[in-house]
Amino acid sequence: MENNIFNFREISDECIKCGKCIPECTIHRVNPDETTSPRGFLDLLAGYQNGDIELDKNAKDIFESCFLCTNCVQVCPNHLQTDFAIENVRKDIADKYGISWFKRVFFYLLRHRKVFDLVAKMGYMFQTCGFKIEEEKNAMRSKFSIPLVKKGRLLPSMKKKSFLNKYPEKIPAKNPKKRVAIFIGCLANYNFVEVGDALVKILKALDIDIFIPKKQMCCSAPAYFTGDFDTTDKLSKFNMDYFSEWIDEVDAILVPEATCSAMLKVDYEHYFKEYAPEYLEKHKKINSKIFGATEWLYKETNLNELLAKKAMQNDKITYHDPCHFRKVQGIYKEPRSLIEKNYNLIEMSDPNICCGFGGITMQTEKFDLAQKAGKIKADMIDETKADVVAAECSACRIQITEALNNNKSDVIFKHPLELIANAL
Ligand code: SF4
Ligand code: SF4
After folding, report:
1. Residues 178, 240 within the same domain
2. CATH code, domain carrying 235
3. pTM for this prediction
4. 189, 261: one domain
5. Domain that holds residue 203
6. Closest atom, ligand 1, to C-alpha of 38
7. Whose CA is nearest to atom 3 of ligand 2?
8. Where a domain ends, among 266, 299, 332?
9. Do 71 and 354 contact (CB within 8 A), yes or no?
10. Which of 2, 12, 16, 190 has an alpha carbon 20 to 30 Å from 422's alpha carbon atom?
């Protein structure tokens, strides 16, 4: 891949230093220092481009501490895309320092679906045999759906069969009014297959033709947020070429994952504009048909009316807004509107505050920061006295479940589609 062509100085020059972003910034909230704030990041980035600041280990540490939550973009009067600038400097960091071996292995798996399938299957067998006792112990003390504890961390367990291997490519409806494709995302494919099960159940109830494109690849978000632009380049172009083959045959591509849908819709556009403009037109056409799952179900189907005829459930639900839905795509009313048809919905004090997942680096090398941000969210959830916290994002699911577990909370996590399918 060619050297970085991103103009850090341009975006930094547009910062008027108003500081509006600082109280909203996730990293600044848990590490209150000007260098770890949007304004500080932009200053440092200009210094880096001017040659005043070296991209040394200290700078690497600073730039890797951003959660990429996009809070700053939302509140900035100039809508400065600090997150995009950080993503770009991470490319330079990856070029200079390389990428840790375990991330390289993970990104290799993202680029090779068949190998990933095999590894997931082995992971399932290994965890079933090796961690059975721990799993049983956890199941006894916790209702969480990702109960595998290892060295104090909750790790999402692998399912026996991935979503893409579990279902046929086409699930026809009797009298279909619409036809949709499902882009499932890696976590719902391998770890939280129940999310895809719920979506299939809902679409069947609505008599909608289902197409599950089997060759779909990871959206590349984990690699992109880590600065591995080679992997991003390969996966984003592959997906766009592949989607182009069948896009005219579907009304929509439903994505039950906030991060994946934001990556496909918004980050691909940023990336193509900067690095592969020849893909912009193809992306534009596909983009008009990509939706968050609850967004499309709410806007384009009669699911609301169908749910209104179903019984109210006893569970109290609180909804967490994934950053990549509410802030990046403006999706927040739709999941709530569907959930509250059958559940008592209680708002937490700030559903829009980032849960602190932050990506693979944050979850491994900077986990103390993720835990600090997660604690704020877990306390907020516990205060509601809800039975269930929901969010349309499996990354939030991992982070929130971990934070609730650390809080010794009894609140469990469910994807909104699971709640909806349960009410049908
Ligand atoms: S993306 Fe989030 S953590 Fe990063 S600078 Fe912006 S507000 Fe702060
Ligand atoms: S809100 Fe925008 S313009 Fe104001 S300090 Fe933050 S990045 Fe700069």
Report:
1. yes
2. 1.20.1050.140
3. 0.89
4. yes
5. 163-299
6. 5
7. 15
8. 299
9. yes
10. 190
